[in-house]
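User: Hi! I'm working on a homework problem where we have to compare a predicted structure to a textbook description. Could you give me the structure for the chain below?
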Amino acid sequence: MKNMKKLSVFLSTIFAIAIVAASFTSCEDPAGVYKPGKQISKIYETELGGAEFLTQEWKWDGKKVSSISYFFAGQVYGKDEFVYDGDRIVKIRDDHGYYADYEYNDKQFKTIKYYGPGSVPLAKVEFQYEGNKISVITLTQFEVDKNLTGMIERGFMGKLLPKEGMKVVSEKLDNQSKEVIVTTLSYEGENISALTTAGFLFTYSEYDTYSNVWYNFFPFSSYDAEVNSRVFSKNNPGKITNKFGEITITTSYIYTYDGNYPVTIKEKSTHMGTDIETTTRIVYN
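Assistant: Happy to help. Predicted structure tokens:
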């Protein structure tokens, strides 16, 4: 049961990874290379004005991320390790046998392939480009897990989508023997302006002029299913609107900075008059 739940979280993060990969828009930096101006050391989260908890601890080998440990209620519950070919990430693996292999075509992504324990193929992501920007991402799922629904709702898509929208995505993964999900992207400069996937439309606006510390970072993890839209672009979005049919969720962000990088991110999501507020605090080396 534990491994089945981990597979569910793993598949939910594939949505995050597929979309995050779109942040590779610079012709100067090849896909798979992450060299931020500041190195993350620890990440803390606070929800609804409650207690602050450590959620991640990053370790570095020089200028490269070597591992990320994940925490819940003060206890470590998982760890990812990063494998490189030069400066480029070629594999990310966790401590329960899940991993992702990255394949490149010169400076661009070709495919990302995902595997479970025993090297069982779970899914792959394929990329199409217009110039130096990713325009279409195609996710093909190979494995089906009937326990997906609850884990996806707690994961990446659940952070951004209304409950009604989550039912659609969950059912697509839960009921098909082989699911293909296509994501299309558009840009304004070095930042994503709109993204469509599985019937959802995300629009991004009010970017600041500071650097996004997650830009060009694309972790695979079967632990961390909480990657959100702050990783999409070179700068930090001030507003994200998510629409699915008649449903709209608006999320606003307020930042404080250390030099050119954010140290706190206050996030407020509004849906049908209900607000959900969280705060992320980033500690750097």
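For your comparison, note the following. Residues 2-20 form the longest helix (19 residues). Helices lie at 2-20, 148-154, 156-160, 163-175. Good luck with the assignment!
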